[in-house]
Design a protein that fits this description.
Elements (H helix, E strand, L loop, with lengths): L4 E2 L10 E3 L24 E8 L2 E9 L10 H5 L2 E3 L2 E5 L5 E4 L1 H14 L7 H14 L11 E10 L12 E10 L7 E5 L17 H5 L2 H9 L4 E3 L16 E6 L2 E4 L10 H12 L4 E3 L4 H9 L3 E8 L3 E10 L2 E4 L7 H14 L10 E3 L1
Parallel strand pairs: 1-18, 2-4, 10-11, 10-16, 13-14
Antiparallel strand pairs: 3-4, 3-9, 5-8, 6-7, 6-8, 7-18, 8-9, 12-13, 12-15, 15-16, 16-17
The protein binds 2-OXO-4-methylpentanoic acid.
Amino acid sequence: MNSPVDINPAIEMNYPIEINPTTSSRIHEMDFENIGFGKIYADHMFVADYSNGKWKDCRVIPFDKMPLSPATSAIHYGQSIFEGLKAFKAADGKAQIFRPDRNAARLNKSAKRMAMPELPEEIFMNGLRSLINIDMDWIPTVTGSSLYIRPFMFATDEFIGVKPADNFRFMIITCPVGPYYIKPVKVLVADHYVRAVIGGVGEAKAAGNYAATMLAVNEARAQGYDQVLWMNANNFEYIQEVGTMNIFFVIGDTVLTPELDGSILDGVTRSSVITLLEDMNIKHEIRPVAVSEIYEAYQQGLLKEVFGTGTAATIAHVSDLGYKDTNMTLPPIEQRHIGNAIKQRLVDIKTSRVEDKFNWVYKV
Ligand code: COI
């Protein structure tokens, strides 16, 4: 069996990290049997600052509130991007992280689009490693749980004029999490709001992309749905993504997912699922997917599965799809052979229960 990749085999130290551990751990407050999602944070956080064209002051410090000027430019103009990844404990008790290299690269792609500075991969990887090492005990081992890792970067200029900022902060915080969706998700197809347009920032993991979805999600909730399936902006004919996850459909024996066109997040889980579909010889097509095609397949009894993919969501089955006046109720979860098989294979790879033939798992 392949062994996990070392998170940073040749540890460069162009950016030394100062470690300042907490004197009062909060881990005893943590109920690992009832974790939830995103409310309790591990003891430490990683911080690095950017000014005068340089990243500096890399540090691991106790997780805490931080003073910010009310004029902080990210708050006003939204130069703010983030990532999401997860750490797991393998059977040998060691921590491992799923595809952090992809997150490091995607952060920089988002940074470029949002006129923010790129972050050296060394800071991303060594920051991750230092933080996971110091908060190793916060990685839960209950089935379905993990340590969610949230790297993010935001503009820190204290300036109200509109311009690309000169000062930024990069941080990583972590929190033990259970499943993001505790039951199959009900998704409503958007018919008047849009999330992203070609040429916009839809492919960046920018905070504003999530803000753009909130009103529509509220309205979907009022109709009994959990999330919105975003459509292309000019005619609402082609499917984009769900906002919290990319989307896959199984029609007959073929899996479909929208191609990346600049308006859709290039999800790490999406890309891993596509690789697994290839590996498992499951027929799949990555191309524009029209909502009319999905509806027709449903009417013909051919729509077998719909599932979302994301770091937080993992593989999240969709139970219902609301489109115009129809609610498409999908087959029971036990019959979701493809989604279930992919979900199991991914968990097994992440926790080293099966061979990691793609070298996706990095040990800490
Ligand atoms: C993730 O899956 O990591 C995300 O960033 C999506 C967010 C809804 C939690």
